[in-house]
Amino acid sequence: MRELEVNGHTLRTEAADDCPLLYVLRNDGGLSGPRFGCGLGQCGACTVLVDGVPTRSCVTPLEAVGTARITTLEGLGTAGAPHPLQAAFIAEQAAQCGYCSNGMIMTAAALLAENPAPDAAAVRQTLDNNLCRCGTHNRIVRAVLRAAQAGGGPKP
Amino acid sequence: MNRPRAISRRAVLAGGGALVVGFALGGPSPTAGAAVKLPPHLAANPLIDSWIRIAADGGVTVFTGKVDLGQGLSTALAQIAADELYVAIERLQVVTADTARTPNEGGTVGSMSIQQAGGALRQAAAEARQALLEMAARKLNAPLDTLSVEDGTVTSRSGPTTTYGALVGGRHIARQATGTAVPRPVESARYVGQPVARLDIPAKMFGQPAYLQDLRPRGMVHGRIVRPPHPASTLQSLNESAAAALPGVIHIHRQGNFIGLIAAREEQAIAAARQLADDARWSEAPPPLPPGTAEDWLDRLPATETVVSGPQARLNLDHAHRARYFRPFQAHASLAPSAALALYRPDSAEQLTVWTHSQDIFGLRPALAGLLEIPVRAVHLIHREAAGCYGHNGADDAAADAALLARAVPGRPVRLQWMRADEFLWEPAGPAMAIELAASLDASGTISAFESTVKSFPHSSRPGGRPGNLLASQLIDAGFPPIRGANIPPPRGGVERNATPYYSFPHRVVEHFIATMPVRTSAHRGLGAYGNIFALESFIDELARAAGADPLAFRLRHLNDGRARAVLEKAALEAGWGSAKPYQGRGIAFARYKNAGAFMAIVVDVDVDRKDGALHVRRAVAAVDCGRLINPCGVETQIEGGIIQSTSWTLHEALLADGNRRARDWSDYPILTFSEVPDITVHMIDRPAEKPLGAGEVAQGPTAAAIANALFDATGLRLRGLPLSAGRLQQAQSENG
Questions:
Q1: CA distances from B164 to B91, B150, B156, B184, B592 (A)
Q2: pLDDT tens figures, B199-224
Q3: Does B696 reach chain A within 8 Å, measured CB to CB?
Q4: Cβ(A59)–Cβ(A144) under 8 Å?
Q5: N or C: which end of chain B has fewer CB atoms below 10 A?
Q6: CA–CA distances in Å: residue B396 to residues B80, B230, B367, B492
Q7: Inter-chain touch A30–B667, beta carbons under 8 Å
């Protein structure tokens, strides 16, 4: 039995040490934020923050996480108290199918925590390894810049 | 289901929200008129309760047979229904395709939903409103023409009020559509035409359950499949013992060449699948692909030729200009590999329930019934959103896999998830195309005759009721007929979609249809339109150059349709066509999707790097006419998305690499990145008096041609084979010296 700290709560799992964190979060934790896109660390849909660092949970084994603080999309903010990025993505309608949004928001949250006033080029470079197939890229960039304007949010 | 959360109140409060039924001078109620022909889907399902239900608390449920693919359809339909019912959009929830609950409106395909589903729902909601007002007149004992309604509250001029909830309150309206209800006048629309915020986006941004992948019924177990090395392989032996001994494995299913398994935990299912893959021995099948490349197959495989437009006899082409264009097999490459959740209960009337992201659950239902040999009425399919599909991806086949596995564990919901390689290797591909064009110019530099031959594979192999069109049916080796590719006839077309020019010059178009599928193919956003418009609009530019004409002026010379001219002129104006170019090369292109749908023109600016020869798409300016705009934000997003996706297809994408090796993950199949995405501006021409037209696919073809035309403008190199990859560019440059 292993205990993880997820979004400020303790999550217990019987999963083996080599189980990718993604499946623990989704199946033991019942979380829907981190998403399965490739299982290969290529697309970023599964991104969570581990001690504030964007981490691809589909290729992160449980044993690598230890006692680190894990934050998922659900932990970033809620409808009642949205993170500036979540509010910005809604305001900019920065989603078509929305499946990539988790990866985009979590990666951008870490960017803004480190660089509160990125320019568009910096945002694009940061997100270059996050895939969006619907073609929402420019709205996503606008949303991240908008969130930066609004203060970027607390250090996750 | 989608319930509104965050609504753009700014948009909502603009304009009046009330219907005042009566005229001061008396006269017929403006909500009823002479009976008009019902929209086809409403005529097929005329009971108003099939479309609209009112709860006692005034909540409104709207039913549609279409699905939201991430294109915002459920929001657009909510706007339409809320307007016709004179209710606040917050009262609505939209129930999308469900074989037990919604009308059968066929597949959500072809950019037709706004017209078909929107049209049916608009009239159904108007009919519901009409019925409710008549009920209110009786209840309030007031003449119909003294009533007004706002947000579901009906008020008579003398004072008394009632509400929709009080009038119907969970019961049936129990009326059939008559065609006499008059839809709300365009000028009084409150939601239609406004950029109403998408109802489904907030849940997705907060990580709330929103996708099929988020369903977690109690007792759910996890399924995986193990595919053969290639479609023609047969399973010689499978030693199940190692996999069966792994933790959590519940069941291993082998049926013919179909291998699947179920485990308690997801990672256990993945580990067991890997073990089974290691322990399976497959035959050395004959080479599954014909010799040569896709282009060779297009020329050599048996085909049927049909004249799809123009005269049977060939046109007389004087000193013809000729060119041949090529489009490779391409992947939908949905961000999420396909999945399905299936539950099999043999003792229930509803033996099989499947939650699926198939675009066409009504065509899938009889196919699954046939596969499992159970009655169609015993199969219940419910659509749930997954990632964008952009056509016929692995969704239907994943549903079939799930159904087979679920049958092995009755009463336990099985979540079947394809892995990334399963999706890339087994989903139907966008078909390769070869397009041969010829045209002659007269002395004045006008096109005097045009001929086209389009060669391609099937642009549809959807289940459409046929169990044989499910991959699982082929694998279980139970005597189902082989997967059959269909050729969609004109006017919608598959191979020949947008092969017939919208321009006015004598033309003859021949379709060269290859029924066999060395690579399984099916509908891929735009179908034939992507390849056909790439070819046509590249060729128009080649002819313009031969005529010594400006590409914009040359197009306008051959276009009589005012709406077509308008999008070209708008795009050109906004892009600054004819003024100093911001980048090295500039190209223009136009299309009317299916020659009956939305209009679009686009101007693209590119740079070609002098050092490494890389092509950079810098800027795109588009003008779009979708008739009456339902949601301008939705349209703009769809057009931006289509431009970006088409840019990706056009610059990067070919499913088969050298040696016909097929991509299996993103490292083999790169798509456009943030840094490569151009600056995009979309100008929408709103025509509220016209019928609304779907925007989902119109951008694919013109974007490709405009890029190729811009490349020519920058370098003098005319590339006719897609993708416009760095390799092709370098080859063209070296050939040019």
A1: 11, 10, 14, 18, 42
A2: 999 999 999 999 999 999 999 999 99
A3: no
A4: no
A5: C
A6: 30, 19, 10, 23
A7: no
